[in-house]
Write a structure and sequence with these properties.
By secondary structure, the protein is an alpha/beta fold. The chain is 23% helix and 24% strand. A hairpin with a 2-residue loop joins strand 13 and strand 14 (237-242).
């Protein structure tokens, strides 16, 4: 089979990648989305009972209405919405096909995966940040009892569970597993539950901690994990508790080394913001565009679906203008 040619290749089948493909379709440009996981992979890995902070209309893409049965749409509703949008628009998407190499030539770009080779005049990177978790870097982190991805609380019923973190994902995991009968201990690096925790959930976790239903160690870190125990460094010294499962909700980071491998420049500060033109979202490599949360570098809390949807319009307006 020969190399397949497209006007645009999009890396990432999340909501913003889909939004870019919808914009490309309206402008008559051929487009292929390459995704290393499943459709809207990041959303798929959210907890099964999760509700969004945003309302459904703020999650819409391509002008397609998102009708929810709830004031705050659920993960399952979002999965169904984005699947239906992709299917009804007839978007061309290759799932579980990770891009390994992108090289520039006189005709555009050669894009290589473990399955096929493609060419495109332009490339849009909308890969998000959910694929690489921050590690604890402690002995025992490799044990199968630890996960960086929490999904379903039933799995943890009647077990001793340590949850690392104090963000939305950590709080959801703590409350849901506790309600399924788990004995929950939270280990929090800071002095309190995160201020970004959803306003209707934060009082719940604070009350559960105050009454002693959920144990919490603040200003503390996990220092070692063993098959039946966890060591925690607290302000009063190291303590050891019995443990069967560890859920490390330590956050995730974008694949910045991949951007660097393409020649995309990053800022020298800790945020490592990729270079792009804020008017067109074109990177310093002409013909490679950035879309969605990847634009924020390590500041993964600055961009969301609702304030990244406009990226698709700006990118495709610029690409279309080059071809007319």
């Amino acid at each position: 089979m020969g190399v397949r040619a497209y006007d645009i290749i999009i890396i990432g089948a999340g909501p913003i990648g889909l939004a870019c493909a919808l914009e490309a379709k309206t402008r008559g440009l051929s487009c292929l989305i390459l995704e290393k996981g499943t459709l809207v992979n990041s959303l798929y890995h959210y907890p099964v009972n999760m509700s969004f902070f945003s309302t459904s209309e703020r999650l819409e893409i391509g002008g397609v209405p998102f009708v929810s049965n709830n004031a705050k749409p659920t993960r399952n509703e979002a999965l169904e919405y984005y699947r239906r949008v992709a299917a009804s628009a007839g978007l061309q998407i290759h799932l579980f096909e990770e891009v390994s190499k992108v090289t520039k030539d006189d005709n555009g770009f050669a894009v290589t995966t473990h399955k096929h080779g493609y060419t495109a005049k332009d490339v849009i990177i909308a890969s998000g940040f959910y694929g690489i978790p921050y590690l604890l870097n402690v002995p025992g982190e490799e044990l199968s009892k630890l996960t960086h991805y929490y999904t379903d609380p039933h799995f943890y019923a009647f077990q001793k569970v340590v949850i690392v973190g104090a963000s939305n994902s950590a709080v959801d995991a703590a409350l849901e597993t506790w309600r399924k009968g788990a004995e929950v201990t939270m280990v929090v690096r800071g002095a309190e539950i995160g201020q970004r925790v959803k306003y209707w959930v934060r009082p719940d976790i604070i009350n559960r901690i105050s009454e002693g239903s959920i144990k919490a160690y603040f200003n503390s870190t996990v220092t070692a994990i063993r098959e039946h125990e966890v060591d925690i460094l607290t302000p009063g010294g190291i303590i050891t508790i019995e443990n069967e499962r560890v859920i490390a909700m330590t956050g995730y980071q974008p694949d910045l080394p991949f951007l660097q491998s393409l020649g995309i420049k990053l800022s020298d500060d800790a945020v490592r913001t990729p270079f792009y033109d804020p008017g067109t979202f074109e990177s310093n490599i002409k013909g490679i565009y950035l879309a969605g949360v990847i634009c924020g570098g390590m500041n993964t809390h600055s961009l969301f679906i609702e304030n990244s949807r406009e990226h698709a319009v700006k990118i495709l307006t610029h690409i279309h203008s080059k071809n007319t």
